[in-house]
Write a structure and sequence with these properties.
The structure holds two protein chains of two kinds. By secondary structure, chain A is mainly α. Chain A has helices at 11-26, 28-37, 41-55, 61-76, 84-103. Classes of the chains: A mainly alpha, B alpha/beta. The A-B interface holds A 5-6, 9, 12-13, 16-17, 20, 23-24, 27, 46, 49-50, 52-58, 61, 64, 68 and B 13, 15-16, 18-19, 22-23, 26-27, 58, 86-87, 108-113.
């Protein structure tokens, strides 16, 4: 699920990246809580935007894509709690986060 | 002859600051200063004297474009290329960012292994253009 863009690099670089990746993954539940707790569209968009912008750099491209899809839907909505496509996209994002955190 | 040695990053997300530092310092061998917001960058430019600045666009307080305007007023920033970093990727969004006077735009997410090489063309082209 999580790949290392550091493959093929010297062992010290691979090890350093692995530590950073583990730290990022450990912070994913907190990022999800911020997304779930967002009480307006602007806050939700920002939280999703930040997750989308960081995930692939940490070797978690599918997670970043899921966040981007949700962000794109959030931009179009005025009522996030009632927007079915957005709710589905957020549910997908939640499943991805759970899968990543569980594996770790 | 000046080489690209010192890179200043201005980024409010701590996870992105960490991967930037890893990429540019550990992988790229640059001397790196990561600032969490525009005001911090403005205060530290004179001491750090960056050869290139990577500047996040969406930040609380001073935005990336606002920080760029303020940086350009500093004598230490004369001839120093500034590259925006953003997760926005639509062509019209990227074009709009360039109108603020940045040398280029790097779209997030970036590859931490290639970023140290990817920034060099911005430094090579940007400093020549800014110095003239």
């Amino acid at each position: 699920m999580a790949v290392s863009p550091a493959e093929g690099q010297p062992p010290s670089v691979v090890a350093a990246f692995a530590r950073l990746q583990a730290q990022f993954v450990a912070g994913l539940p907190q990022r999800w809580q911020a997304i779930e707790a967002a009480d307006n569209v602007a806050i939700l968009e920002t939280a999703l935007h930040r997750l989308a912008g960081a995930s692939a750099s940490y070797g978690l491209a599918p997670l970043g894509e899921a966040a981007r899809r949700a962000e794109a839907l959030a931009r179009k909505t005025t009522a996030p709690g009632q927007d079915q496509p957005l709710r589905q996209a957020l549910a997908d994002l939640r499943r991805q986060i759970d899968a990543i955190v569980t594996v770790r | 002859m000046n080489d690209l040695r010192r890179v200043m990053c201005v980024e409010d997300d701590p996870d992105i600051r960490m991967i930037l530092e890893f990429s540019l310092a550990t992988v790229g061998g640059y001397e790196v200063l990561c600032c969490p917001e525009g005001g911090s960058a403005l205060r530290q430019v004179a001491d750090f004297l960056p050869d290139l600045v990577l500047l996040d666009v969406m930040m609380p307080g001073l935005s990336g474009p606002e920080t760029l305007v303020a940086l350009r007023e500093l004598p230490e920033m004369r001839g120093v290329p500034v590259v925006f970093m953003t997760a926005k990727a639509l062509p019209e969004e990227l074009e709009e960012l360039l109108t603020h006077g940045a040398t280029g735009v790097i779209v997030k997410p970036f590859d931490p292994m290639s970023l140290p090489t990817d920034i060099r063309p911005y430094w090579e082209h940007g400093r020549g253009r800014l110095a003239s």
